[in-house]
Amino acid sequence: MSVSDAIEAVGETSRGLVALPGSEQYETILKSYFPELERELRPACFLTPSSASQVADIVKAIKPFVGRSSKVAICGSGQQATPAVANVHGGLTIHMRNLQGVTIDTERNIVSVAAGEQMGKGFICDNVVNYEVVLASGDIVNANVDTNRDLWIALKGGGNNFGIVTRFDLRAFSQDQLWGGKLFYFQPSFSEQIQSLVEYLHCPEADVDVHICVSLGFAAALGSILCMNDVFCTNPEKPEALRPFTEIQPQIDQMNTLRVDTLKGFTDEGFSGALPNRVVKMSTTVKADVRILQYAVQTYHESFEKLKGVTNLLFSITFEPLPVSLIEQSIARGGNSLGLKPADGPLVVVLFYTSWDSPDDDKNVYDVNTESLENIDREAQGNKVSASYRYLNYSFPHQDPISSYGPESRAHLLAVSAKYDPEGFFQAAGVGPFKLRM
C-alpha cells in the first residue's frame, strides 16, 4: 500500500479533487503558503475538496493506504509559521482552500465561516460556538456546548489531533469604528514601556477594551533596531489607559499609523506586504514581571549579535499580554483546552520572530532562538515567574504545547482522541509536531 494507491482511490471518487505536481493548480497552492519552509515541501498531490462531504469521501478513500510511513497533512489557509504542520513532503496534503463562504445568521448572532477562509489572530477559539468536523470514520458531526461537548472543548486548542474541521460557527458581536494602529520609537524608551505594560496588566481596574503589544526589532532594510507599539481600543476615542504607550517620545512620525478606522482597515494593514522568505516563530510564556521582561530584552540583544551576519535578516522580540480578563472570558464562554486559570495571570507571551533568505543560515537561526528561550525559561524559573503555558501557534517542533496545558487538559485530550478516533488515524497518519504522544 502506498501514496499512489491513495491518490488512485481518491481519483475513483472524484478525479477533479487531485492536483498533481507540474500542474498549474499544484504550483498555485504551493506558492500560497505563508512561510517558505512550508513552500519547500512538495507533497505527492494536493487534495482540494469544496464541501464537508468531499472531505469525508477523501478520508474514507485514503484511510486504508496511509499510516506511520505515508503521511497526511491538513491545511486551512497555510498561514502558520511552524514548518511541516500543514504540508508534507511526498505525502498527501488535504488543502481546504476551496471550502469558501461566510454566512451570517442575524437572529442568532452567529457567523459561519468555511475552513478555507482566512481568519485573524488571538484566542479566536473562545468565540467558536460550533465546529463541523469530519472524523476519522468519515462521519460528519457537529461539536458544540450541547452536542459532542468534549470534542468541542478539545478542538479549542488541541490542534489537528481529532478530525478535520470544515466549518466554524462563530459568535458575532457589534463593532463600530476602533482607535489604534502602530507607532515607532527608539531603544532608550523601551524599558519605560515594559514598566508601563506590567503596571497596566496588574491594575485591578485595567481597561478591558484595549489591546497592547510592545516589540523591539531589527530589519535589514532599515539597518537599525527600532521599537514598536501595536495598540487598539474597541471605541473610536483614544483611551486614558493607552496614553503611556502612545505619548512616548521621540517617535518616528512618518511611520505612525494611529487613527480611527474599521476592523477591516486594521486587519488589511496587519496582512499587507509580500510573503516573507524563511520564517521562524518561537515563544515562551512568563508572569507579567518587569525583571524577566528586561532579561528577555537583554537576551534578544545577545542573540542579535549572533545573527547579524544573516542575509536580509528581520529579527524581533514581542511581548503579547494575556490579561486576567481574557482568561476569565475563556471560562465564561465554555472553556477550552489551554489549561489557563485566572490565578495564573497576568501572563506575557515572549515571541521571537525571525525571517531570512538562505537555507545555509537555518541551523544558526534555529539554535540561537532555541538557546534564547531556554535562557529566558531558566531565568524565569529561578525567579519564580515562569509559566507552563505555550501558545501553539508560536511553537516550534521541539516544543510541546499540548503538555504545557497541564495533566488534566492532556488527559481530556487523550480521552477525546480515543473516543472519536479509536484507531488513532490522526495520530499515526496526520503530520505535525504537536501530537498527543500516545
Give an account of the 3D structure:
The structure is a single chain. The protein is built from 14 helices and 16 strands. The protein is an alpha+beta fold. Strands 13-10-12-11-15-16-14 form a 7-stranded antiparallel beta sheet. A 5-stranded antiparallel beta sheet has the order 5-6-9-7-8. A hairpin with a 4-residue loop joins strand 11 (210-219) and strand 12. Helix 1 (3-14) crosses helix 4 (52-62) and helix 9 packs antiparallel against helix 11 (362-382). The protein is globular. 43% of the residues are buried. It comes from Diatrype stigma.
Shape: globular
Largest sheet: 7 strands, antiparallel
The residue ranges in which pLDDT falls below 50 over 5 or more consecutive positions are none
Strand order of the largest sheet: 13-10-12-11-15-16-14
- Provide a count of the helices: 14
Structural class of the helices, strands and pairings?
alpha+beta
Specify Rg, calculated over alpha carbons.
Answer: 22 Å
Number of E-state strands: 16
The level of helicity is 25-40%
Cα-to-Cα separation, first versus last residue? 24 Å
- Mean pLDDT score, rounded? 90
Order of helices and strands: HEHHEHEEEEEEHEEHEEHEHEHEHEHHHH
**Percentage of residues in DSSP E strands:** 15-25%
Keywords: FAD, Flavoprotein, Oxidoreductase
Organism: Diatrype stigma
Family: Belongs to the oxygen-dependent FAD-linked oxidoreductase family.
InterPro entries: FAD-bd_PCMH-like_sf, FAD-bd_PCMH_sub2, FAD-linked_Oxidoreductase
